[in-house]
Amino acid sequence: MFKHDYTKTMMMKLFMSRPDGKGGTVTECDFDRADDILRQADALTLGAPKILYLVGWQYNGHDDRYPSFFEVNPALKSPGDATAPESMLRFINKAAEQYNTVVSVHINFSDAYENSPLFEEYRSAGALIRNSKGEPAAIEEYNGQPCYKISYKEEWESGLFQRRVDKLLELLPLREAGTIHADNFQCFVNRKPSVSIKTMQAYRKKMIDYLAEKGIDVTSEFSYREGPLTRVGYGALVRDLLWRLYPLNTLGQVPAVWWADKLKRREVFEIYPEKYAGGLLKGEYGKFLYGNIHGEDLWLKNNAGDGWQKEFLRQFAAINVPYFYLASLKKEKLSGRGKKMRMVYTNGTVSYLREQKIANNGVLMKAEENLLLPLAFKEDACLAYSKNGYKRLWQMPVFKYNRALIYDITPEGPKFLEEKPVVLGRIELDVKPGQALLLELKP
After folding, report:
1. Residue 303 has what pLDDT?
2. Quick check: pTM over 0.70?
3. Looking at 271, 300, 324, which one is the last position of a domain?
4. CA distance 350 to 333
5. Residues 43-58: what's their mean pLDDT?
6. Cβ atoms within 10 Å, residue 381
7. Could you tell me which residues come within 8 angstroms of residue 33 by beta carbon, excluding any fewer than 6 positions away?
């Protein structure tokens, strides 16, 4: 049904730019730096399948001039290229060919700003959320601009949605990417003339289906639960307090979200991550079911700058590798309460909340951030990691191997260290603090 399998694909974002509040832009990452980041990330993740959504690629950056998204920020251009779109297309192609990565865009279908070229057209079409007086109402503020919300019903019926999507697809090869990320894609109640939440949800589905017909998955930010009381506080009451009363409306429409939050216990067992992937699963469940790491915060210049590699490797090893492994298994039951919670899988694997431990038929595979786990995306290979370092004898969960070629995982690629024997399914490893090792297993 979906173009991508989000249980087998890393889903990350890269923040490019933002408005400076003076009519200009602040560049966090141009396409040259993006290339360098992705090259190293691909090496550190051993070529794992990846999707990278670019944030703030349009106009002066993040949250600028919606509902328009038809211009690549000129400040992101590489010096050797004539235009920013040329740089963006070159980066997209190189990512696919060399870095095992689908590059797509982070956009917004919900917001509208007065500085957008489309704003007056949306106002005239009645395609903005209206207050009790029947007037368009700004609900939030971003980048110093009042932020209006789009009424999906009028936008769809006027053809505005279809036209702006078609224009975007002329600009960028998003059919080839097969995925986009829609930021904060929630429904709002239009008060006068009234449009119910159920009607708004039905039109959101039309929007998602329109992209699906073009071979494009829509991933999004949150778990969307909406109902009649969404009119209170523009959705805050339902979203933050009464979420247990409403089902996930986008289940089956949206395959993955950035924050898999507010899931009930039954939903965690039945739908995560096979039908509703992360992103990161918030709360206690995320500590033993894991998810896709975000990457985005580590790559901001004012955060880790160019010292991001060590933390990125830790997160990949301690979060994404367990996620891939567990997502490849079939769940049997979710047991226990509180700190005793654990997920049991049909092959004998158990993932525990306590100590973030994973074991297979009694064989320890992970305890906190010490681990030796199979790489679900790489045949006959394991990854060993320790945040603080260890020297220990590991029992393999499979007894068909006699030796292992061991590589140090670095931003420049795996560096061969040594060959070690596997004796009766056991191997002794000496892992330095913060080090990750690739084990290529041989019969």
Report:
1. 58
2. yes
3. 324
4. 10
5. 98
6. 17
7. none
Strand partners, 217: 179
Alpha carbons 307 and 60: distance in angstroms, whole number: 26
Kindly tell me if the per-residue pLDDT of 307 is higher than 70.
yes
Number of independent structural domains in the chain: 2
The domain in which residue 370 lies consists of 329-442
Question: Which H or E run contains 90?
Answer: helix 84-98
**Do 270 and 340 have their domain in common?**
no
Give residue 202's Cα distance to chain centre: 25
Side chain identity at residue 440, one-letter code: E
| 390 assigned to some structural domain | yes
Give pLDDT, residue 302: 62
* Token reading at 130: 């209206």
What confidence tens digit (pLDDT) does each residue in 196-228 have?
999 999 999 999 999 999 999 999 998 888 888
Instruction: Provide the token pair at 69.
Output: 């998204």
pLDDT, residue 56, reads 98
Q: Is 266 inside a domain boundary? A: yes
Instruction: Tell me, yes or no, whether 3 lies in a domain.
Output: no
Q: How high is the pLDDT of residue 282?
A: 84
Q: Kindly state whether residues 268 and 356 are assigned to the same domain.
A: no
The pLDDT value given to residue 239: 76
Shared domain check, 357 and 271:
no
Q: Please check the confidence at residue 306 and state whether its pLDDT lies above 90.
A: no
Q: What are phi and psi of 190, to 5 degrees?
A: -90, 125
3 state DSSP class of 341: coil
The DSSP result for 172-238, as a single string, is S-HHHHTEEEETT-----BTTTTB-HHHHHHHHHHHHHHHHTTT-EEEESS-----GGGGGGGGHHH
Which of 298, 324, 350 delimits the end of a domain? 324
Q: d(Cα 180, Cα 301) in Å, to the nearest integer? A: 25
Looking at the domain assignment, is residue 2 inside a domain?
A: no
Separation of alpha carbons 418 and 225, rounded Å = 52
